[in-house]
Specification:
Chain lengths: 230, 468
């Protein structure tokens, strides 16, 4: 397999310097851009496998970069953002970004996001390749509609199952409340994010040993949920 | 009421003089056969005194003239003519007239003085009543309203007070009296009075009104001075906080920066000669110190947002368990006992901010208690609110610090640790923004508990659709 191509759109030289070291040593081919316009050009001309976009670019809104990339082709997009800007993250995710990391972040976190994004882009998402999804003691088989903890089957209601199935389909990626509402309840429940929270609590009480300290179903405050993959 | 001239009094004085003279004539006529003329003179003088006392000097003079005429007509021969028979009668007229004038004048004067005394008493009482109410006013506008009401009642007048030296203040209303409200040489407002029932102000009344205006201006000055003193106090307080912030931030920034610089340069210079464990330790310290810096910056930003009023709550209905769980996920091995009832209602909160409260409280508990000692989190609910308690088993707070720990830059002395003194102040700001309360109490069994409540306000969320 050739080295995956990463296009990094980031205007801060210190961050580029640190990511250059991290990504090249991990075997990615890196192309850098300091403006949104240059980044869009590089992403298309280099046939990027992953695009990393900082939300605070000098020449154009990060959201605009995401929308134009999305209009081009479904390349995985990972957003760099600051903590305390949860609204911006949600907006970026709802505009089509795949995931985000909050500055300051460790290199391990970003690399994990990139791996998940590449895996999903390759169409090898768990549950779609015929194999069951497994993490820790949790096992979800989407073909057989079978959920088990330590080999013991767990009975879920239809909504609980749809919620879990959506998370499994996007395992490792963050999903916003809007995305989950749309996937599980359909398009007409936009302002009822508490549905998701209540059913997530039900799901945790059935799947987690300690529902308040979830091992699998992580909360990303102000943003959404993530099903962990390792 | 006071100092106001009643215009129709002239005609009633004339009527009174005529009636009084007629009555005195009738009485004297009835007594005349038995008594002599001097009795009639006394009767007329009595009438003059009576009219003078009630209707004033002009009426007394009129009564005197009419009385002399009636006396001449009825009681001085030749009777029933104004002709005068002898010189003695003429001197009687003169004396009667003079005595009448003097008595009428004196009576009227006494009456006037008595009325003036009553008026002054009422004026003083009205002024005192106004001053009492003015003392309670804390703003210019409240004071203007109170002042206008009192002046309006005292003078039975339409009254308004316009603050400042504006065009509106200087525009004249027809038929009104305008008095400037002055503080030293500066006009601070205008008192504008229009008497009802088309009356006008006497000299005394004007003086009285000036007394009211003076008191109102004085009260305005008092409020302005109090406001200036408050501004000065806030200024000093802001300055003190700014200094505390600079001291605290420069110290808290330098310590981790020194540690990072030290570790990084050590690794650069001698990293190759070190064993793996030492290198790792230095690298770990760099990571930990940057995390500390990050928390500091986060707290400073949060505090700035809270104080500038830019904090916008994004309230949604959340299960508290999830928010507490998200905060707990940021803490490592420390044993935490969680007691959260399964039927705890959804709470209308900004989850990111309440998570910050939990993180700060947990951070506090971890920092000030021995490693490995347990921390308890307990959530309970009533019909109106949900409350959360974070309790540790550390040394507790020194007496009197229970309130002060929530103040900015307050730190418990002598524990050798330093936080920014912002964490709990941020907790308080966020909880208050949610309409809740937060407090600390030392526990009888040792340790300290931090508690906060979150009210269950607003329309509860729509019920969940069926799921079967």
């Amino acid at each position: 397999m050739p080295e995956p191509i990463v296009v990094l759109i980031e205007d801060e030289p210190q961050i580029r310097r640190f990511l250059r070291a991290t990504l090249t040593s991990e075997g990615y081919r890196l192309f850098e851009a300091t403006t949104g316009a240059d980044g869009l050009m590089q992403a298309t001309s280099r046939q990027a496998d992953v695009v990393i976009v900082d939300l605070g670019l000098p020449d154009m809104d990060g959201l605009e970069v995401i929308r134009r990339l999305r209009a081009w082709r479904p390349v995985p997009i990972i957003v760099l953002s600051a903590r305390g800007q949860e609204r911006d993250k949600v907006a970026a995710l709802d505009a089509g970004a795949d995931d985000y990391v909050s500055k300051p972040f460790g290199s391990g976190e970003l690399l994990a996001r990139i791996r998940v994004a590449l895996r999903h882009a390759a169409g090898a998402a768990q549950g779609h390749d015929g194999r069951a999804f497994r993490v820790g003691d949790l096992e979800v088989d989407l073909m057989r509609r079978h959920v088990a903890i330590s080999g013991v089957e767990v009975r879920l209601t239809p909504i609980e199952y749809r919620l879990l199935a959506t998370l499994v389909t996007h395992a490792g990626k963050v999903l916003t409340h809007q995305q989950l509402l749309h996937e599980v309840w359909g398009p007409n429940h936009g302002d009822q994010a508490h549905y998701v929270r209540v059913y997530m609590a039900h799901l945790r009480s059935k799947l987690e040993a300690e529902p308040a300290r979830p091992r699998y179903l992580r909360t990303e405050p102000g943003v959404g949920y993530r099903l962990v993959v390792d | 009421m006071t100092g106001i001239l009643r215009i129709p009094s002239v005609s009633s004085g004339v009527v009174a003089a005529v009636v009084a003279v007629a009555a005195a004539t009738a009485l004297s006529w009835a007594m005349f056969p038995r008594f002599d003329r001097s009795t009639a003179i006394m009767t007329y003088l009595l009438a003059i005194v009576a009219v003078g006392a009630r209707y004033g000097r002009l009426a007394a003079i009129l009564t005197s003239v009419l009385g002399v005429a009636a006396f001449d007509f009825f009681f001085v021969p030749p009777y029933y003519t104004f002709a005068v028979g002898d010189a003695q009668a003429l001197s009687t007229f003169a004396v009667m007239l003079v005595v009448g004038l003097v008595i009428g004048g004196l009576t009227a004067q006494i009456q006037r003085q008595a009325r003036a005394a009553t008026d002054r008493e009422r004026e003083t009482a009205a002024l005192a009543a106004m001053n009492r109410d003015l003392a309670e006013a804390t703003t210019d506008d409240a004071l203007a309203t109170t002042g206008a009401r009192h002046v309006g009642e005292a003078f039975d007048a339409e009254t308004r007070i316009v603050l400042g030296d504006t065009d509106e203040a200087n525009e004249t209303r027809p038929g009104s009296v305008r008095l400037p409200l002055r503080e030293r040489d500066r006009q601070v407002g205008t008192l504008d009075v229009r008497l009802r029932h088309r009356r006008h102000l006497t000299t005394d009344g004007h003086r009285h009104l000036e007394a009211f205006a003076g008191q109102i201006a004085f009260a305005l000055a008092r409020i302005r001075l109090a406001a200036e003193a408050e501004t000065a106090r806030v200024g000093v307080e802001t300055e003190r906080l700014r200094n505390a912030l600079l001291t605290s931030v420069s110290h808290d920034l330098r310590t981790p920066l020194a540690a990072i610089t030290g570790a990084a340069t050590t690794l650069l210079d001698g990293g190759a000669r070190m064993d793996e464990a030492t290198r790792r330790d230095l690298l770990d310290s760099i990571r930990e110190e940057t995390e500390r810096l990050n928390r500091l910056v986060q707290n400073l930003l949060e505090m700035t947002r809270l104080e500038s009023g830019q904090l916008r709550l994004r309230r949604e209905w959340h299960p508290l368990e999830e928010v507490i769980g998200a905060a707990l996920a940021r803490f490592g091995e420390r044993p935490v006992t969680l007691t959260i009832p399964r039927n705890l209602p959804l709470v209308p909160i900004d989850d990111v901010l309440i998570e910050q409260v939990m993180v700060n409280l947990l951070d506090n508990a971890v920092k000030y208690t021995p490693p490995g000692s347990p921390i308890r989190i307990l959530a309970t609910a009533t019909d109106e609110s949900v409350s959360v308690e974070v309790a540790d088993s550390g040394p507790g707070l020194p007496p009197g610090a229970e309130q002060r720990v929530f103040e900015k830059f307050y730190r418990v002395d002598g524990n050798g640790l330093h936080g920014t003194g912002l964490g709990l102040a941020i907790c308080r700001g966020i909880v208050h923004a949610h309409g809740g309360r937060i407090w600390a109490q030392n526990l009888p069994e040792g340790g300290v508990a931090f508690l906060f409540t979150l009210p269950l306000t607003g329309t509860p969320p729509p019920a969940l659709p069926t799921d079967a």
